[in-house]
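Why do we bother with holo predictions? Because pocket geometry can differ from the apo form. Keep that in mind while you read this record for NAP.
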Amino acid sequence: MIRAGIIGGSGYTGGELIRLLLNHTEVRLDFVFSRTRNGESLHTTFPDLTGQTTLVYTNRPEPDVDVVFLCLGHGNSGRFMEEWSFNPETRIIDLSNEFRLSETSDFKGKAFVYGLPERNADRISRARNIANPGCFATAIELALLPLAQEQLLTQAVHINAVTGSTGAGAGLSETSHFSWRNNNFSLYKPFIHQHLAEIRETLDGFGPPVPELFFLPHRGDFPRGIFATAYVAYEGTIQEARDLYASYYREAPFTLLTEAVPNLKQVVNTNSAHLHLHKHNGVLLITSILDNLLKGASGQAVENMNLMFGIPRDTGLKLKAIGF
Ligand SMILES: NC(=O)c1ccc[n+]([C@@H]2O[C@H](COP(=O)([O-])OP(=O)(O)OC[C@H]3O[C@@H](n4cnc5c(N)ncnc54)[C@H](OP(=O)(O)O)[C@@H]3O)[C@@H](O)[C@H]2O)c1
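The structure, written out:
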């Protein structure tokens, strides 16, 4: 059994990891660390875990586990690793943005590999530490990877994406307050969202730098999911585009092409990303949807762990969509 620990286990990605790891046949969840809930049962924070586990939160991580998931707000992972040390053999999977870019991927001798399996599966399977991608970044990179690989991103790419409220974490803020968020819709950080850097670095990795990425992120009034659309000039036929995407993702168990225009409920509560292609007047429109807490965070983190430990990539991730 893989012995696992979770740091930041009272937050949204931590909670989702607890649920996944308790149901993972190859994992034993040894501890869940919390600064603020030491000694409390996990179900006091997550009532859906009632009867699922007798674990209580701890404020002392167990140093000899096989893998640790860091589910902390941005900037806290490095601080945590300075304060607490783990066995040199312990693998680290960090869900924050701290180590995602090549210029930040080395932390005191620990090298972090960018954990997007659709781009880096071989490197992930050999990695000791993983920087798990951002949720918007995953949706957008999956939408554009096949075009980038063929160097078909020759003109500006326009991207719109809407995220649910869990994307902002469990802490209450003005824009996640029910009265503000419910029945509301808003734009934020137009053209400057922080995930653009990792998106650009991933796409640029295929060769010449991709042109301008015009990204408009939006907040939706639903809790989970990302619905992203990207469009770009494309000279091929729609069938050529479908063949390109099918070929690129032929070995990706979670990234699937759909014939019908997708809707969020077909991926919410799953680790799948669904992609749909549409051609109009020389422009290719790619729709990319996923669950921000699963393929956009904790599900992808488990997928990365499976790759690192040489077990089937979908172990513990055969999940059921809510559907309706
Ligand atoms: N939410 C998403 O959809 C999503 C998607 C992809 C990536 N991410 C990234 O994943 C990370 C976690 O996100 P989240 O949504 O789970 O956040 P969250 O709900 O705010 O949870 C973060 C947890 O970290 C702990 N924490 C906060 N400050 C800390 C500190 N200074 N030192 C140690 N622990 C601290 C807290 O738990 P305790 O008080 O119990 O210790 C808190 O519950 C973030 O970096 C986020 O950007 C999130």
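The chain has a mean pLDDT of 97.
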